[in-house]
Design a protein that fits this description.
46% of the residues lie in helices and 14% in strands. With 401 residues, it is an alpha/beta fold. The strands form four sheets. The chain has a six-stranded mixed sheet with strand order 1-6-5-2-3-4, sandwiched between helices. A five-stranded mixed sheet has the order 9-15-14-11-12, with helices on one face. It has a two-stranded antiparallel ribbon with strand order 7-8.
């Protein structure tokens, strides 16, 4: 671990957030002299973000904890295009009304992790539609486009991936990296922003913005990226067999969110406690040293702390009690996913998110993984009335009449 002078870089480094930094020495010195406004961009492609975005949300939280100013940049403008970074195909284009709805919905998530207001270290939420929608094409090409090399843009991994696979990359998407760089320039002008943060796949885009600010305004700005976050078994963080782990409770019940963290691989417990909770590092060291069955206690601490941050303390207590009653007493807790019956077992599995299609539901039944009130379900056509539906040992839902 590098010896940093600033509380900001010491905090980020000690908790495992830093992958790459542009001019770490100069950024460290800047963070010692005053408040550093820093931003991360989020394209509002859905009404909720999922756990895959949580490292970046926590990164803004750490920025504020270290005495600096978080800027949440919503991509109301860039969201109309879509970031091509490491995507196999173009995103579906969204209407302005849909983007506005998603921005308002996503703000509720950030209000749980950050303190918003007018103070020097209070978080603010901005929308790049404010400046991108007003751009005039010819002046933008003349004033900004001249600073970008097509040769270099073609060399970025996010572009090469699509080209190497001979997958279409539209001119619309190709412009995304220029617009993201322009965001950094605008934020440095409008909000005194000196730092952009993001995942490791954003390194090229961040460097573009740093160079653009230097060339156009002579402003020194900085970038930090986080490591690519995968689970110990190589899976993508925030994705499960049942789909995305949404941060909003109206898209994923409290119990399922809590259970996602409870099911963490033993090897990931310490890392996730550092990244996704505010627990002190010495307490985390004690928890991750637990072995055998005792590591389950650390997983419950992780689930409680992560759920409290995202959903509130009441949600965490409710979910933990549901888990205790479900697994320790064999009864059904109140916060399990619930649907009305009578309903076919196939429809029920899809409705509660245990399967993404009728075909997948039938396969799970055929594999003997589905039970109703403790008895294996063998017929996909079986109708369920009141009782408990289970998939494996860890997924449960209630059928009510």
């Amino acid at each position: 671990m590098t010896a940093h002078k600033s509380e900001l870089l010491r905090l980020l480094d000690s908790r495992g957030y830093i992958h790459q930094t542009t001019d770490a020495t100069a950024l460290d010195a800047l963070a010692c002299t005053g408040v550093v406004p820093g931003y991360i961009g989020f394209d509002p492609t859905a009404p909720s973000l999922h756990v895959g975005s949580l490292v970046q949300i926590m990164l803004l939280r750490r920025l504020q904890q270290a005495g600096h100013k978080p800027i949440v940049l919503m991509g109301g403008g860039t969201g109309k295009i879509g970031d091509p970074s490491f995507k196999d195909e173009a995103r579906k284009l969204l209407t302005g009304d849909t983007l506005d709805h998603n921005v308002a919905s996503i703000r509720r998530i950030f209000e749980r992790f950050l303190t918003f207001g007018d103070g020097p270290t209070d978080a603010v939420m901005l929308d790049n539609a404010e400046w991108l929608d007003a751009l005039q094409y010819i002046p933008f090409l003349r004033d900004i486009g001249q600073h970008f090399s097509i040769n270099r843009m073609l060399s970025f991994d996010s572009v090469k991936l699509r080209l190497d696979r001979e997958q279409s990359l539209s001119f619309l998407e190709f412009n995304y990296m220029i617009l993201q760089a322009y965001d950094f320039l605008e934020l440095s002008r409008r909000a005194g922003c000196r730092l952009q943060m993001g995942g490791s796949d954003q390194w090229g885009n961040i460097v573009n913005g740093i160079e653009l600010a230097r060339r156009v305004d002579g402003t020194e700005v900085f970038g930090i990226t986080t490591p690519l976050l995968t689970t110990a078994d190589g899976g993508k963080m925030g994705k499960t067999v049942s789909g995305a782990v949404w941060l909003h409770e109206d898209q994923l019940p409290h119990y399922d969110y809590w259970q996602f963290w409870r099911n963490t691989d033993d090897r990931d417990v310490g890392r996730f406690l550092r990244l996704f909770t505010d627990l002190p590092l010495d307490e985390i060291a004690r928890l991750e040293a637990l072995e055998g069955a005792e590591i389950n206690a650390a997983k419950k601490v992780l689930a409680d702390a992560a759920t409290t941050l995202c959903r509130g303390a009441d949600a965490a207590v409710e979910a933990a009690e549901t888990a205790r009653r479900t697994f320790e007493e064999g009864s059904a807790g109140a916060s399990l996913p619930t649907i009305a019956g009578p309903i076919s077992v196939v429809e029920a599995l899809v409705a509660v998110g245990f399967a993404t299609s009728n075909g997948e539901a039938r396969r799970k039944i055929g594999e003997g993984a589905v039970k109703f009130d403790g008895t294996a379900v063998t017929e996909p056509s079986q109708t369920l009335n009141a009782g408990r539906l289970s998939l494996g040992k860890k997924k449960h839902a209630l059928i009510t009449v």
